[in-house]
Amino acid sequence: MIMNGVNIYPAEIETVICGHPAVCDAAAMPVRSDRHQDIPVCAVQIAAGMVVSERELGEYCVERLGFRAPKRIVRVERIPRTEQGKLIRAELGQMLAASLGLGQSNS
Question: FRET label pair with 2: which of 27, 68, 70, 95, CA 20 to 30 Å apart?
Fold first, then answer.
């Protein structure tokens, strides 16, 4: 994804946020913006029995990624993946659109 002319790699965001002990899975995707091109958003699945706020996760990412950190973090029950573990982008896009109050998926 490209935000304000800077490449931001979803895998980098996912690797960092999955390093937090409360996160068991994550997937980053762009949300289209007329102003900023793409805005990085990350869906996270919290590990059973763990408690963490979106704010804490956001701060964790900013400390490690700086301006490349996701601008929004959305908790989901599960990250939609195929049996082989591949991200189902269309389904995640719909989940994020619903959580963020967007009219349609921007995957």
Answer: 95
Q: Residue holding tokens 């935000």?
A: 3
d(CA 49, CA 5): 39
Which two three-digit tokens encode residue 37? Answer: 């091109």
Mean pLDDT calculated for residue range 12-41: 93
What Rg value do the Cα atoms of the chain yield, rounded?
A: 13
* Beta-carbon contacts of residue 90 (< 8 Å; ≥ 6 apart): 105, 107
Q: How far apart, in whole angstroms, are the C-alpha atoms of residue 4 and residue 87?
A: 26
Query: Is the predicted pLDDT of residue 64 greater than 70, yes or no?
Result: yes
Q: What is the pTM of this model?
A: 0.86
- Residue corresponding to tokens 């979803």: 10
Encoded tokens for 67: 């301006």
Say yes or no to pLDDT of 105 above 70.
no
